[in-house]
Amino acid sequence: MSDYPPTGLPASIKALPEWIQLGCGDAEYNCAEKEATFIAGNMPAKLPDLSNHTSFFADTMRANPELFEKLKSKTTKLGVNIGHCIKTGVDNKGHPMIKTVGAVAGDEESYELFKEFFDPVISARHNGYAPDAKHPTDMNPANLSTTPIDPTGKYVLTTRCRTGRSVRGTRFPPCSSFEERRELERVIVKALLNLEGDLKGDYFPLHGMTEEKEESLRKNGNLFQEPDSTLLLSSGCGRHWPDARGIYHNEAENFFVWVNEEDQMRIVSMQKGASVVEIFKRFAAATEGIQKVLKQEGYDFMHNEHLGWVLTCPSNLGTGLRAGAMVQVPKFSARSDFKQVLAKMGLQARGTAGVDSASTGGTWDISNADRLGKSETQLVNIFIEGVAQIIRWEQALEAGTDIEAEVAKAALPAKF
């Protein structure tokens, strides 16, 4: 047996538990130990019992019991069936307190061919987004708010914007072939190496990366590794690992692109402090530069007027954008209704180690909550105005001022 994909596994993967190895080869993930045995290539006549599943997928299927049988004979032009899209939802029951989507798309056409399934999932996940709604796109930095987020420089540690992009005419991780992923890497890296000015940098493939480089990226949280959750393994994200995957970054290491991780491109622009406008400008220039080269190669980004930028997981449709900052607000975040107030303002808070983690010393990762239905600049403006307001409240609490009347009126910024 070979020691590299597509026919074998490299030593780094063979050192991992078998349940992870099973998701990093050429075949669909099939692991009895993790009860991940639903196979899109050999779907059962009826959907397995979903009575103990917690996800938007399970809700939709329970509400429409005939849907699976209605859709299972359909296949997109690139060979994707409904099984590829729902495998991760069938294999993973989910957590009663944390509702995941439980589905991914296999390609761009999946969202259209299986719309009877995806439309209700998208609507439930994105605040009632309608099947005929139009998603606005606006990457123009001139439309960003000029409100200073943190005039004193005391509260915001770092700020980042991240999004994803996909290449039209190709398949997503659940269905991508070995050759297809390599072609994606070729065109994406060609586009990245064409970037100029403060975006100019280099590409580091995961396979063959030096230990020093790996350690340097890991230390700063900029390295992605093989999937170690059944959610991702059942979504096909581990197949042929680590082939055709890598990380691009500019010389200043404040602009990164992850290639062929969960999305074909995950684009991140960040820096210390609260300079979100500067970060967004870098981010907008990069996506424009990448798209230009893709078009020269006969490709383009996936985008349509209903779903915006089309990505693997329905949770990231629209803008795919998360504008976030690590913000130190120990007094304001001590409120029992902290997360509820943020939700009214179109924001969400994560702990310092990501989703569902705890805060450290009153430091929270605060970001926009929505992805779909509002443009990029609208979402960044909600973030700017919201975080600026939270910092003003923190300062008021430091000064001993009562803020209850103001907090009671918390809402989305009027002009956005």
TrEMBL record:
Residues that, per the record, bind ATP: 158-162, 266, 322-326, 350-355
KW Kinase (keyword) present: yes
UniProt KW keywords: ATP-binding, Kinase, Nucleotide-binding, Transferase
Broad EC category: transferase
One cellular component (GO) term of this entry: extracellular space
Pfam families per the UniProt record, alphabetical: ATP-gua_Ptrans (PF00217), ATP-gua_PtransN (PF02807)
Record-annotated Phosphagen kinase C-terminal domain positions: 155-397
GO molecular function: ATP binding; creatine kinase activity
Listed GO biological process terms: phosphocreatine biosynthetic process
Keyword ATP-binding: yes
EC number: 2.7.3.2
Span of domain Phosphagen kinase N-terminal: 39-127
Family according to the record: Belongs to the ATP:guanido phosphotransferase family.
The name this protein goes by in its record: creatine kinase
Organism: Oikopleura dioica
Native organism taxonomy: Eukaryota, Metazoa, Chordata, Tunicata, Appendicularia
